Amino acid sequence: MKKGKVWKYGDNVNTDVIYPGKYTYSMLEPDEMASHALEDLDPEFAKNVNPGDFIVAGRNFGCGSSREQAATCLKYAGIQAIIAKSFARIFFRNAINQGLPVIQSEEAARTIEGGEEIRIDFSKGKIRSQKGDFTFSPYPASVMEIIKAGGLIPYTKEKIKRGKLGK
User: Fold this and answer.
1) d(C-alpha 76, C-alpha 72), whole Å
2) What is the rounded CA–CA span in Å between residue 133 and residue 118?
3) Mean pLDDT of all residues in the chain?
4) Which of 92, 76, 84 has its CA nearest to residue 28?
5) Residue 166: pLDDT over 80
6) Contact at 8 Å (CB) between 94 and 120?
7) What is the bridge-based pairing of β-strands 81-84 and 2-8?
């Protein structure tokens, strides 16, 4: 079970406000990217986010470009999961590739408030908040392996190292 504080945002939070496009080709280190996470939407976010916090948002989170830095900067800022009413598909995939869990739950996203502390049990598909419990479909085992490994690249490297990939 993971617990942390909620940062709450609305609909259509796009990749350009998650990670400003002006930094796309000038910053390469994930920690540096994290220092600019959400700066155009919420200038206080990068300064005040704590490892283990969550983002809860409205519809179409991560819309816009296919910029994978958007998922990377949130992961390295310490966000341990994002709950939203819906996600842009490319952001959803980029987040999984980075080992950042994304949970689609319209009811939880509508009900959970910013600043609230929540708990998530990924194996049981349960979100516990001060306003109630919400369920979601747990990830398939293969996706959980990618998340637990820290992303697709570490997962793949480990599989190759153990001789379980590429044969």
Assistant:
1) 6
2) 10
3) 94
4) 76
5) no
6) no
7) unpaired
pTM: predicted TM-score of the whole model, two decimal places: 0.94
The pLDDT value given to residue 67:
85
Provide the token pair at 141. 């085992």
| Domains by residue range for the chain, with CATH | 2-137 (3.20.19.10)
Tell me the C-alpha distance between 20 and 41, whole Å. Answer: 10
Identify whether the C-beta of residue 62 lies closer than 8 Å to the C-beta of residue 11.
Answer: no
Q: What's the confidence (pLDDT) of residue 167?
A: 53
Residues sharing a CB contact under 8 Å with residue 43, sequence separation 6 or more, in sequence order: none
Question: Among 99, 106, 69, 101, which residue's Cα sits nearest to residue 84?
Answer: 106
As a 3-state breakdown, the chain gives helix, strand, coil percent values, each rounded to 5, of: 35, 20, 45
Whether the Cβ atoms of residue 105 and residue 127 lie closer than 8 Å to each other? yes
The residue written with tokens 């995939």 in the block is 93
102 closest CA partner among 117, 92, 114, 88: 92
**Token digits of residue 38:** 């959400």
User: What one-character DSSP code corresponds to residue 162?
Assistant: T
Report CA 71 to chain centroid distance, whole Å.
Answer: 6
